[in-house]
Design brief:
Elements (H helix, E strand, L loop, with lengths): L1 E2 L2 E2 H12 L14 E3 L3 E10 L13 H12 L4 E8 L4 E8 L3 H11 L4 E5 L1 H9 L4 E6 L14 H9 L4 E9 L2 H19 L3 E6 L5 E6 L1 H23 L1 E10 L2 H15 L10 E4 L3 H6 L2 E3 L5 H6 L4 E6 L2 E6 L7 E4 H7 L11 E3 L18 E7 L18 E5 L7 E4 L6 H16 L3 E5 L18 E4 L23 H15 L6 H15 L2 E2 L4 E2 L9 H15 L3 H16 L4 H7 L7 H4 L4 E4 L6 H22 L8 E6 L13 H19 L4 E7 L7 H5 L3 E4 L5 H10 L4 H6 L7 E5 L7 E4 L11 H16 L22 H13 L3 H10 L4 H13 L8 H13 L5 H19 L1
Parallel strand pairs: 4-18, 21-28, 21-29, 22-26, 22-27, 23-26, 27-28
Antiparallel strand pairs: 1-2, 3-14, 4-6, 4-7, 5-6, 5-9, 8-12, 8-13, 9-12, 10-11, 12-17, 15-16, 19-20, 19-31, 24-25, 29-30, 30-31
Helix pairs in contact: 1-7, 2-3, 2-11, 5-8, 6-7, 13-19, 13-20, 14-15, 15-16, 15-29, 25-28
Organism: Bacillus pacificus
Keywords: ATP-binding, Nucleotide-binding
Pfam families: DUF87 (PF01935)
Amino acid sequence: MRLHNIDTVEIREKDHLLRKSYLDKSNLSPDLNMEPLGQLSFVKIKGLANFWEGKDEKEFDFDAIMSDVLSGFSSLQSTFTFLLIGSPKEIGVYVGTDQFNQSILSSSLHASYPYAKLQEVEMDEMSRKLRSIGNNGGIITGIPTNKTFGESKSQQIERLCTGMYGGSWAYIVVAKSMSPFQVTLAHERVLNEIDNVSKFIKVSESGGSLGKESWEVTNLTIQKYVDNLNSLEESIDSGRTMGMWRVAGYYLADQFVNATKLRNLITSVYNGEQSKPEKIRALPVDNILYYASNFQFPANELPRQKAMKHPIGVWDLHGEGITKEVHCYKYLYQTILPTGELSTLCQIPRKEMPGFYIDQYVEFDVANRRSIHDESNSFTVGKIINGNEEIKSYEKLEPSNLIYDMDLMDLSRHGLIVGITGGGKSNTSKGLLRNLWNKHRIPFMVIESAKREYWEMYNMEGFEDVLVFTLGAEDENSVPYRINPFEKIEGVPLQTHIDYVLSTFKASFELYAPMPHVLETSIYQIYEDRGWDILSNKNKYGANVFPTLDDLYYKVDVVVDNLGYDQRLKSDITAALKARIHSLRVGGKGAMLNTDKSIPIADLLSRPVILELEDIGDDDVKAFMMGIILVQLYEYRRTKLTRNKGFEHLILIEEAHRLLANVSGGGEGNVRAKSVEFFTNLLAEIRSYGQGFLIADQVPTKLAPDTLKNTNLKIVHRIVMQEDRELIGQSMNMTQEQIEYISSLRRGFAAVYAEGDMRPKLVQMPYVKEDFDYSRRTVIQNVKDAVKNEFHHYDRKYDFGPACAFCMDKCNRREEMGKIKGFIVKQNWLRDMLEDAKNAEFKPDWFEGLFEMLENNGMSSLRNYHTRLCTLNVFLDNRDLEESYKREAVINYMKHNLLKDE
């Protein structure tokens, strides 16, 4: 029927073309015509950070982000592909574009999706993935409706993934941008069509019995057609500003039933009120795998007559004597979509699923606020990571403002590295030490209490001379160490050293009253026994010899006896205190600590040195060892270095809580707390002597609070416990979001904070690789040979009797003792002499008489001081007397001689 010069049949046919109604009746041929898309490059989006959390949905449109990405590619006249590939194990999210635009794609995704983790995938690999799925599926056409589901704001793409989870399937969208000129022409043509047709929607007619009645008639066919034209106009108008695309899609599945399931999901998820004039269709196609896996456009065209009839199918453009054919809707299985509608089909999921993770999104500072005046003093910590930046290998990093660096001199203000096992602490420490030595030639010492990892630095270029000591181990596969806790550095007041040693004992062992008093009294007395005057710092015997742990152990009996406690209390005090001291005297610990001389600390501070404490099983002993080493170092720095000399040396303390423990006050804890305070104060003061400390630990709450306060550089790897995160976070001015985020830090990444930072920065630490592959046995043997050549004389110990402690010669004189004993036995005097000595209580006068009698009977060698000491050993060794009082007998004799000489 023709109404006012409008052919409604033609209008209806045009409307069918707009809605592609012909596809509802179509049985698609397996012989599709295809348009190649060229060489493509892909990236797999492995995960995102939930940067949308906490934002008002009314003000923040997540879907618009993909629109922005697509809009940028539209201006490049580029190709864009989006894929979901499901398998029983995972669902992969992929995005692709022309090969020459791959870098732009990665940059756009990082700029739009902070912390997106991307992995490049070759086109051949993508094709193989698709071919492994199966040949069941078809083509997707139509206009999607952007909609969310339920209160959880579930995305359509997530419903698709959830519905197909566990199967082998693929959802593919391919799009090619249209030229702006073509879109503008199409928009003008649609507007003209609307103008030409819309005026016929309603017409006035007149009639009636008198011919004076009039009424308005609505042509519903034209109304629906114009409505569809208006929808098309809005779509194209949007495309004029944001970009317009030719779009087609594919769906694949391993089985026919799964393909049918996927087909139904696609149509139900994407169809809606906005799917006008062309609804979403998923059309089965035979042999679809070939077309989909080769990333081609279906290029079957409408019959020319129908294409010419379509409002924006094919038409001729006339101008300046030139006629040019223009087309938009001439393809059967392609849909023209603006960027916004295309983005609905290509949304990245917001929910985690196997193969696609969602991390917590937290913003860290990225700008350097510090200025380093001398570039030669620039100390590199790592690479600052921006949430919008692709994480590349550290080796490819070029110097830029993304380097986290600091002034080398600031390392004297100490550092702290914390994080759980496996978070990257050791790698970070090794990286800092390698940089420190190889680039700046600053020596260091590692005190490694729990594991054996730092010996591996021997396998790094530049560390051929590193020394590795195995504290507490004396077997063939070890490098023994020697340190006498009572040996002070020359120039340090004796009173000061005694205070340091006492603090070390109290910080390492649990001492209840009156044990601290007994210990202090015993230490003072063993120094006096060795001839030391506490006030003058001089030795009365003219010797530079110091007490040993043996002296302290046996002195406890004498001191407790003299204090007058009742028998039960005396036994308890003696047993408890001697048990603690004895733990330092036995086995390898005794060989190391119960020695006359220490390896000179000065010889260890000029090169990289590693002290392994793993063979010491007792935590208290480990703490004692760490404390004594720090005391030795502190004394050396005080006497050898002037203040303000810059940064000279670094000490790394692993598992530092063993010494710098968080101890509460009260009772025994108060004694230990004061000693821990001594060491924290030591750390604060020693920086002025050019000594830096790097403290490493797993649990921040186990460390003394001042440790966190007195460290400038803080490097925080993954920490799980909330109380630990809160504590360290507050010391670094972290936001609450950052505090929560450090529980999920990846290995090799850390939050780093130092003076000059407003808030922490997220830093990727350099991965430390070994340059050689020497075994531990080889390394230990090489170091052992080097140590033996340089420090061989410190490995000797002479202890043939209680008098040896006072011998200044320290040579092998045991044969002297044999001669003396043989002489006495030959004369058959030994039994009578011992009985006489017992009655005389081994007093000095008796020994003098003994020596005089022996000299008178032919032992002229007794005029030698050392021989007299050997004689004392002979008598005391054969006497049933407690070791403590054998030593007292020697001490009394030495004091007697000193008074006699005076």
